[in-house]
Amino acid sequence: MSTTRPSRAGVAFALATALLPTTALATNGYFTNGSSVQSNGLGGAGIAYPVDALAGFINPAGIAFVGDRVDVGLTAFNPDRSATIAGNQYGANGSYSGNGVKYFLLPEAGYTHQVADDLYFGLSLTANGGMNTGYHDNPYGAFGGQGEAGVNLQQIVLTPALAYKITPTQSIGIGANIAYQRFYAEGLTPFAAFSQAPNSVSNTGYSSSVCVGARLGWNGSFGDSLTLGATWASKINGSFNGYQGLFAQSGGFDIPANFGIGAAYRVTPQLTLLADVQRIFYSETHSVGNPLANLLQGNALGSPDGPGFGWRNINVYKIAASYVYSPTLTLRFGFSHAQQPIPSSQTFFNIIAPGVVQNQVSLGATWQTSQRGEFSFYYSHAFEKTVNGFDSIPAPFGGGEANIALSENSLGFAYAWKI
Description:
The protein has one domain (4-418): Beta Barrel (Porin). Helices cover 9% and strands 47% of the residues. The protein has helices spanning 4-19, 37-41, 55-58, 248-251, 286-289, 293-296; strands at residues 69-86, 94-97, 104-116, 119-135, 149-167, 170-186, 207-222, 226-233, 258-266, 271-280, 314-326, 329-338, 359-368, 373-387, 401-418. Strand 7 and strand 8 form a beta hairpin.
């Protein structure tokens, strides 16, 4: 058995590493809703209800309760992105499709193992979030934009974590979020005239960075029915040197801090109900939170107070149910609602980053295929949301309004080995 554990973990992480460059998504702003196939079947809930070896990414304390196992999975992701412009004096009016690439693959992998009495180790690799748009018809073409327009942001996080059981039903955990992120932008040359570094605004290829943050967590059961959990992740400081003229603070692009609390209540031996609340601090990241109005106040793109996407801090609310239909089959259902991160005044720049969906429903299941193996799947749909602009296009760009829309579908499969 000792020889199979490393090989299974190695296969899982090799597969994920090989596929990760294809990832791109946007659900709660640009954060992924769940860390894994099983957690996405629960609408992303799970702060107090660990279900697999990727639990450490949500709450590192949870890895003390999932056993020794390896999980590997893959999700097919299909976002539908679009924008319309109306009332523009420079002739930009029209409808634009941002679906230059329609499908994405989102791999995942996790490993957990008890290393000593009451001490547990976990390693997870998953997409934290991202954003992709590809407009064959450049919505900024009327302002001088050449060729296609769009962005591709990818954030992948490796989380080694330790959990310690302070009692048989209480655990604390700590992990490091080691983030790899990369970005490119094209077709944004009209904004170069407003930048402190006009040659580093658009069409400079991929720029990447590796950065590190911390995650803490707690998980505790009270009686036979109630489990509570709490988790916090620090801001991760990152930057894209190739886009020093686009993002505030000379290319700075931090991953926002976030925290959450959760509860799981066992109604019957078969039925467990879950509820999570997550807070994401988008506005604390200058390149994401600074409003476009900063440009009109004399702050050039790329400067310390340069304009960004104007995103607000948001809360995400998740409810879910897990039902053990039989000893070999578990069914899942989840719903999540996110506050709107993009104000109606900020839609013009967010044509390239329309992370506006708010309501998502999901279902999933796990089938135990053998004593040590299990197969899981989930499907989720994020309902179409449109944010209509209001005073959204600045006068130097001819005024008018930009409206942005997004909907999403996801289908994922995973397999786990209990070792």
